[in-house]
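Hello again, I could really use a second opinion on something today. I've been staring at a protein lately and its backbone has me curious. You're getting the sequence in one-letter code plus the fold written as tokens. I'd be grateful if you could look everything over and explain what you see. No rush at all, and the record is pasted right below:
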Amino acid sequence: QVQLVESGGGLVQAGGSLRLSCAASGRTFSIYAMGWFRQAPGKEREFIGTIKWNGGTTYYADSVKNRFTISKDNARNTVYLQMNSLKPEDTAVYFCALQGRSYFPPSHRLSDYDYWGQGTQVTVSS
């Protein structure tokens, strides 16, 4: 089993920045990639980006490319989501997820992720 705990959400004005963290514990040797997703009210959960655990290659959704950056600290089993130039439409609950199965490239599909955090709210005011 793996436990994922997100932190760092909150309220920020448009144009501002936030950094989310996701700490993994348990069977962390099983990590192939760590992804970030978000879900706005009334909408489906959507892929933001992912990072391959060995090597650090990142992949992003077009909607956040050049604004959001995913990074990791293998020693701390933690993945980060740095969000800059935030917009009101970025308001959502943000989730991290662990992909244990190998794909190339790491997956953007929710169903390919085995463990999920509880989510953290990000609210961007206009």
In short: The chain is about 0% helix and 50% strand. The chain has a mean pLDDT of 95. The radius of gyration is 13 Å. The longest strand covers residues 18-26.
